[in-house]
Amino acid sequence: VTSTLAGAMAQRGRKVALIDCDPQQSSMAWAAARPAHLPPVQAISCADPSHGLAAGFTLRIPSDASMVLIDTPAGMRAHELGQLSRNAHVLLVPIVPSALDLRATLGFIDKLRALPEFRSGTLRTALVINRIRERTVSAREMDASLSRITQAALIRVRDSQVYVRAASEGRSLFDDGSSATREHRADWQPLLDFIERQ
Q1: At what angle do helices 78-85 and 99-113 cross, to 10 degrees?
Q2: Is the per-residue pLDDT at 57 higher than 80?
Q3: N or C: which end of the chain has fewer CB within 10 A?
Q4: pTM for the structure as a whole
């Protein structure tokens, strides 16, 4: 989700800073592989992820950044979530359509509901159902469960190998204007509109 958004916003002319706080550092690897001819994305690693999300990276955000994306680890602690929510405009929660992931997400939503920013609507939240396969039992179950969370937008992104290929080359779907990716780019439009809506 993060690299696709970074590529989309860079293509729109935004100065994107991508903060990678996930121990896997996949966003850093994606940015390192990004071809020089594409709109740049500046990737910044958290200085020490073991010390939490506020560990030193805020001072390294470029002054000309018009969008800051933070790739966080799964299972954030409550105090980290609170810290992030006070400074974020939009929170995206990626979900893979499986019973285990859904259970974990519903637990995370319970943490979110405790935040005043979430309850007041100042922290706009979208649940991004990732790698969805239409007309499957898991897709129907996911829709039925998540549609009850009325405080969050629900975005669906279908499963495709185009993401795997693009990520390995440091590209995003939005760096490829071909007809082969047109429908997949359309999947993201509701999320891009949601993010840009201020």
Answers
A1: 60
A2: no
A3: C
A4: 0.81
Q: Which helix (H) or strand (E) holds 101?
A: helix 99-113
Tokens of 150: 């009325």
User: For the stretch 19-39, what's the b/e string if a residue is b when 16 or more beta carbons lie within 10 angstroms of its beta carbon?
Assistant: bbbbeebebbebbeebeeebb
Rounded CA Rg of the chain: 16
> Distance of alpha carbon 66 from its chain centroid, rounded?
17
Whose structure tokens read 């939490």? 52
| 34 three-class SS | coil
In the prediction, which pLDDT does 51 show? 46
Residue 135 burial (10 A CB sphere; 0-12, 13-18, 19+): exposed
